[in-house]
Amino acid sequence: MLLIACPYCGERPEIEFSYGGQAHLARPPQPSQLDDQAWAEFLYMRSNTRGVYAERWRHSRGCGQFFNALRDTTTDHFLAVYKRDEAQPALSSEGRPPSEAHEPPAPRERSP
Amino acid sequence: MSKQSFSGLSLIWRSLSKHRGWQTQWRKPEPKARYDAVIVGGGGHGLGAAYYLAKEHGLTNIAVLEKGWIGGGNTGRNTTIIRSNYLFNESAALYDHSVKLWENLSQALNYNVMFSPRGVMMLAHTVHDIQVFKRHVHANRCNGVDNEWLDPVQAKEFCPPLNIEDNIRYPVLGAALQRRGGTARHDAVAWGYARAADALGVDIIENCEVTGIRRNAGGAVEALETSRGVIHSPKVGVSAAGHTSVIMALAGVHVPLESYPLQALVSEPVKPIFPCVVMSNTIHAYISQSDKGELVIGAGTDAYTSYTQRGALHVNTHTLDAICELFPNFRRLRMLRNWGGIVDVTPDRSPIIAKTPVPGLYVNCGWGTGGFKATPGSAHVFAWTIARDEPHPINAPFTIERFRDGYLIDEAAAAAVAH
Q: Is residue A95 included in any domain, yes or no?
């Protein structure tokens, strides 16, 4: 089970959270202006990234807040969590965020 | 390559001659510089597509490229359930095409895929389940797909270990039974297709990861860059399951997929105790017994997208809670091992078997949590699509463009589990 560091409550087990999919998807300001292709892109197309993925979580059995996270989908390690109104943290070349602000504790050792 | 033919007599003969003389079942060729068609992904769907391309469309200068070993992805990780009791006409046609091919697959391949139509029973636990399943039964009958309604006593007659007492949290109120459904041996499917395709001249190339897709000035597919060199081919069929998004991105094609871990587990082997396949979507359980005696149990998907081929234990224990309520005599069984595979899920839970915007590039993906049952049918129509550059009537509705045009095949509620 993943340990997820809620930016409001700290590290909690995954079963307290709901997954919200890809982060930073904004509803188009003028939906009626979109053609079918653009609408399908918004509704159905997700990046499905293999690697560092910006995604939404909600601490639904905790504080109830939505927040965003950067997770490596090849290892499931969280690289950063950040609040909804914050920009996506830039990652250094080692894949770590430069800021310590909401960086979760180092992942625990896992046996393979 | 001359193929060693299997029969009951040949088995007896080989056993009397101390099992000497069994041949290698397929070659391990070096990749050629140029093929007429290449399939990316050596699972059942990809190997099957290569077989049907060679067998029915006369393309024999073809290759299957597999990043790992054949059948080592979702083909080797699923719970081997076969059924075709889907709600919509498009799905019923596709999945029943597959069941019909399953029925003669061992003979067609001269390889025992151990197809066992032992019956798939889907349990109803609520009044809504009853309504939905009866609707399925009627819709299936209109499409010529067998499916029948059983009351709880009939369900227990068909599956004696089933608990139909009303003192559990979700009592069994009835069941929909597809008698033609059942199971097959997953590895044998990959090996049987590989052996039959190889005998027709198909090159099966393992440990060969595609790292790039080259396109010509007109935008059409020209060659694949792989970990074993550049391979030219005017036609490329991608059958890469959970990694389809990654491969398609190499050609700049977006597909509406998300990749999730899906888990399964098996118990310690026991004597034959479980005669059929039972599934429950409301409380989420899938169970059957393998010929080795293990109870094969399908758990759910994890909540998040991932490429790790593993998931969390609570997903498995959730399923075991349901199994222990439905089959109390399994409570003292120990679980032997659990594992995960990465499944590619579309927004409407129906697959995509189609041409893509890139000429020469075809995709067979989006099977989500239920691709094994479709292996022969999917491979058959995918081969048709590649060979003729147009879809077979059965897979014509399963395009990428249906998401743009609003023609979804919304099987989400008809799939085995509540999504």
A: no
